[in-house]
Amino acid sequence: MKTYILKRLLLMIPTLIGVTMVVFFIVRLAPGDPIEAMIRNQSGNIDPKAMKESADKIRERLGLIEYHFLRDRLFGPEKSWAEKPAGAWFWSVDAADKVASAAIGYAKWFRQLARGDFGESIKFRTSGGSRSPLLLMMERIPVTATLNVIAEVLIFVIAIPVGFAAARYQGRWFDRVSSFVLLALYSIPVILAGTVFIGYLGMGGSGWHLFPVGNLHSFGYEKLAWGQYIIDLLWHTTLPVICLVYGGFAYLAKMGRASLLENLRADYVRTARAKGLPEEQVVYHHALSNSLLPMITALVLAIPGLIGGSVIVEYIFSIQGTGLLLVDAARAYDLALLMAETLLYGVLTLLFLLIGDVLYAWADPRVRYE
Amino acid sequence: MSSLLPTTESPAAAVSRSYGAIVWRQLRRRPSAMVSLAVIMLLALAAVLASFIAGEVPIRWVEKGEVSWPIFRYLDNLEYAGMLAFVLAILLPVTIRLVRARAERAAASPFVRAVLIHAAIWAAVLLALVVLRSPERRYGFYLERAAQAESAWFPLIPTPRYPGYDSLPLRDQRPTWQHPLGTDRMGQDVLLLILYGARTAMTIGFVAVGIGSGIGVALGAVSGYFGRWVDLIMMRITEVFMFIPRIVLIIIILAVMPSWVPALWAVVAVLGLTGWTDPYRYMRAELLRIRGEDYITAARALGIPTWRLLLRHAVPNGMAPILVGATFGIAGAVFLEASLAFLNLVQTPSWGELLNDGRQHLETWWAWGAAGAAIFITVLVYNLLGEAVRDAIDPKLKI
ipTM score here? Predict the structure, then answer.
């Protein structure tokens, strides 16, 4: 088992490097110059010299500098040109330079990443200077993780029994009604549900002031006993968790239904029935336990979508999690923070997938730890 | 070369029912599919005819005995293109009938031929419009002179909508006969906003999913057919894109998208460029199965060039999951587009924008309620249609 986990962890490394490449090249290949827009956004119109200085500093840090090794050698420095050279030869020299500077930029940026240096966030600054995106994210990961774990457990606990019941009574009214209701739930936009919840159920809204909005804990929650702590947490997370889970039911319930149906048609179920086992035991003991296995994979595969969905939910409920941080970073052109956030989401997804695979290997003895 | 091949004459094709016809017959039996299709047609019609339903330019105008039809001079080139696309889509079955005989003689799919012909007509007309025509833009011209006309047919909801028009006195009105869905906090007619939102949603749904499916099918076909190291490398690359949640990828791309890209096309590009992983997986899996089939071996033995084999024999047989995935994909794209507008990351005329206003102004429930209902209905009908198409094609598809 240990070697299996180790092997899976090692296999994650190339994918992770791929994720860093995708993130880097999205920013690198963007037409126009996001850096100057970012500075203008943050500190208003400043004089060109200061602009160039701070832009160069940020470019250096994020590996976005353009080098002109070949061009300078073959055409001389840009200042010495009477007019901009044209033609295929110049173009290919320039393109070669661009490729080289992208590669160098990536290598530099990656070296910093490997040392744990994610650059500086320009949006979130304290009086002591700018803050590391890593620290900012660390503060917020527990919030997002709490929300998603509660949501995940709820989805699993509700959707799977519904799916199994639909398969058990295939074609009957429960099957039809549940499939339509789940599809309808799946089609309700989160942004509508969230708006309605906050407006009519949240505190500060215009309806019943039932649930607090914006935090996961009451003021002074550290002093609560653990029972009260849990109740307080659940009270605060009710609305966002409902928004996170209701859309996930349809997918998992359908998987559960298909999985049980497949097993009910299997040979071993026919054998069990043929030897005279009571129907209850055939379904609940034989077929059901076998149908649960693929559910682990289905649940794990649903995680990236769920984590993505929590970006919108956190924005609606102003919950200070990583999702809201991402939206804020995007609004402020905070490139260092954006890149770090995207990496974080990639890592989180990979970790969850690893956990899922390990669970599956643990539950199914046929999977060998090779 | 191809004229020497026996595949060019296939008498069997003339007798047998085409795959599309079989699927259509299955679909016809499902009420949910037919209702969804009808609603989608209505939505598309509303999006296409938005200027005739709500706006400020009269359809017919009589002044000093002279009859004119001003709206046709005012319509945008893209609006004409939208109308033409709608008409062409409706006429598709007719064209399929017309080209069937010729296509079957050439052993080609009449459906694909008809689609190609219509696409060519559409592109040619759009090009001609862009080159030859410049629509008139005189804001408020007719509304101000309405008293001078002997007869004027305005759109159903004559709403002024031009820069500089002071609509604030009309703001926050409850639904009335003049404004069937009320007005929003800026005084704009909500029905008009919903119609323009439908336009955005329809454009993004079809175009973005089309781009995404196109990329996915092309990459998936190559990856699945050639296998080995090509497949290995492409699968690793795709995994990277799959492991970053789509909305996160979209947010980072939108953040670095330069501001001169129009919001609508930015969203289309982003959704298209991030939506190819699912079609890729489906097509790859299909081709891994198909490439071992006898007819592919036979085609290869006949010496058909690889690109032709992929295009004519392998890919069409793997389209079923792509079709189902695309139907669900449109629902997802509408959803995502509304969410992006809600997050204020793009400024498209969108249902999401109306909902975002509702967050601060809950009392104008008619505005955000209508937008929410529009998203819900659109997403629901596409999901219902997707389920029906899946059941019609193959209930065991795992999508």
Answer: 0.83
Cβ–Cβ gap A345/B259 under 8 Å: no
* Single-letter code of the amino acid located at A207: G
Q: pTM of the prediction?
A: 0.85
Q: State which residue of chain A sits closest to B382, comparing Cα positions.
A: A187
Please judge whether B239 and A183 are an interchain contact, meaning their C-beta atoms are less than 8 angstroms apart: no
Q: Find where tokens 């997050």 sit.
A: B343
Q: Which two tokens stand for residue B370?
A: 């209508």
Of B343, B358, B376, which has the smallest distance from its Cβ to A312's Cβ? B343
The C-alpha of B256 sits at a distance from chain A's nearest C-alpha, in angstroms, of: 6
Of B246, B345, B359, the CB nearest to A330: B345
Q: Which chain B residues are Cβ-neighbours of A58 within 8 angstroms? A: none
Burial A184-199 (b: 16+ CB within 10 A, else e): eebbbbbbbbbbbbbb
Please tell me the predicted confidence (pLDDT) of residue A34. 67
What's the pLDDT band for B381 if we cut at 50, 70, 90?
Answer: very high
Instruction: Give per-residue pLDDT as tens, A102-112.
Output: 888 888 888 88
> With 90 as the cut, is the pLDDT of residue B213 above it?
yes
* Cβ distance of A15 and B243 shorter than 8 Å: yes
**Which one of A21, A190, A330 has the shortest CB-CB distance to B255?**
A330
Instruction: Please write the tens of the pLDDT for every residue from A39-49.
Output: 776 666 677 78
Q: Do B243 and A199 touch (CB under 8 A)?
A: no
How does DSSP classify residue B56?
A: S
Task: Report B:314-333 residues touching A (Cβ under 8 A).
Answer: 331
Distance from CA of B150 to the nearest CA of A (A): 46
Report d(CA B369, CA B181) in Å as an integer: 10
Q: How far is Cα B93 from Cα B75, in angstroms, rounded to an integer? A: 28
Say which residues have a Cβ less than 8 Å from residue A220's Cβ, sequence separation at least 6: none
* B366 contact A CB<8A: no
Contacts of B66 (CB under 8 A, 6+ apart): none
Q: How far apart are CA B161 and CA B143, in angstroms?
A: 10
The SS3 call for residue A123 is strand
Judging contacts by C-beta atoms under 8 Å, the chain A residues touching residue B352 are 191
Neighbour tally for B301: CB within 10 Å: 8
- Angle between helices B351-360 and B190-226 in degrees, nearest 10: 120
The verdict on a CB contact (< 8 Å) between A330 and B335 is no
Residues B23-51 pLDDT 10s: 888 888 888 889 999 999 999 888 888 88
Q: Cα(A109)–Cα(A63) distance, rounded to whole angstroms? A: 5
- Partner residue opposite A31 with nearest CB, options B258, B344, B356: B258
pLDDT of residue A367: 66
Number of CB pairs < 8 Å for A and B?
149
At residue B348, the 3 state secondary structure works out as: coil
Beta bridge partners of A131: A121
Report pLDDT for B9. 44
Find the distance separating the first CA and the last CA of chain B, reported in whole Å.
Answer: 40
